[in-house]
Design a protein that fits this description.
466 residues; alpha+beta; Bifunctional carbon monoxide dehydrogenase/acetyl-coa synthase(codh/acs), Chain M, domain 3; four-stranded mixed beta sheet; 12 helices; 21 strands; 25% helix; 21% strand; disordered C terminus
Length: 466
Amino acid sequence: MFESIPVEVGLVHEGERVRKQEMQVELGGPSIPEKFEIVRVRPADQIADGAIEIEGPDIPQMPEGKAHPIGILVEIAGSRVEPDLEGVVERRIHEYSNYIEGFMHLNQRYDIWIRLSKKAYAKGLNSLRFIGQVMLELFRNELPIIEKIQITFITDPDQIKPLYAEAMQTYEARDARARGLSDDDVDTFYGCALCQSFAPTHVCVITPQRYANCGAISWFDGRAAAGIDPKGPIYAISKGECLDAEKGEYAGVNESAKQRSMGEVSRVYLYSAFGYPHTSCGCFEGIAFYIPEVDGFGIVLRAFRDLTVNGLAFSTMADSTAGGRQIDGFHGISIEYMRSKQFLHADGGYARVVWMPKEIKERLQEFIPAEVYDTIATEADVTNIDELKSFLIDHHHPVVERWKEDTGTEETAQPVQVFSGGDIPITAAGFRIILKNARITAEKVIIQPVRPPHKPGGERRDAEKH
């Protein structure tokens, strides 16, 4: 199938990373504000089947080691192809392009981040046309309902701009459709395992009120995908008995997570960042991160380039959030989930959110309760935790009432101190004990260096070393 492609194409390359020093070029990514990938259903007579177009410079014309704009437009047609499938087919771009040796694709929609390695370029992978050929063949073979397909790569910034605006309108229209449906209205949720090549124990649970972490798959998308390919990476989950309505725990979700994660994840809270939070791979749009000093949450999106109020960057916290682990207080989320009434429902919702970038706060204004909106700080208001505390007190944020309940005063927050980890080894008396999925709460942690017993002459030997 891929004899004309100068590098290997196969599952073995899925999950491959291309580091900065190894890359020939970067397409999209954090430094490029306007980039996108989108699938659109068209009438069959509007598609030149098998066509691959490149509008703008191709890879050889791109300066080495630099980031460049990218837009990917996939147009499809077929007697069984409906607009409901656009988001489903769109997400397969991520999967199929990652089969290519030396080609890394991360994220989705308006957050795509692509790198081509120097090694793959040296082998002859020197045109976007090769990427298009792989995608064409895999779409045709994996999704036979697609009868006609054409792919256009846009690298000219002037041409990307209007198409980007059009793509954003399309994404919003898709997302808005699901907002009128609640989790109580359906008996079936959907799971997505597309990112298990990057995080083998991660399983995304998609409900009407909890979008996929990547922000690309809604409940309607999941239903459409499972309908056309029941054994595919997007599948139905019978939600089963509701075990905890506040936290969002369902028997069917637990059983599915246990099976799909090879037993590593046995319980999932859909509406909480504590206890058994929903896992994350690495394609999440944002992170809800716990700030213990104020007993509240900060929100940061991938596009935010500065340090957050706790002094950490998105990339730093992403390492703690990703990997298919359940880490208390680090919660991968989508923007659409932030519009849901179930957003961090068990943790207080927006009444517990204390900081977020100004851009996303303004973008979500109609979904943030009016009585809370002005009490949430942004990077324009505060730059550190001390300033954040003062801001929350001055603006009467609801979280301050939690401090009063704990201490009788609003001067100092007394947060829950949480330590959690996957496997915590303890070695003692010749035995090695491993605590699985441990969660430890302590009022104080004291770290002291362990010094070896004093030996005569030790001072002289230490002096000689230095």
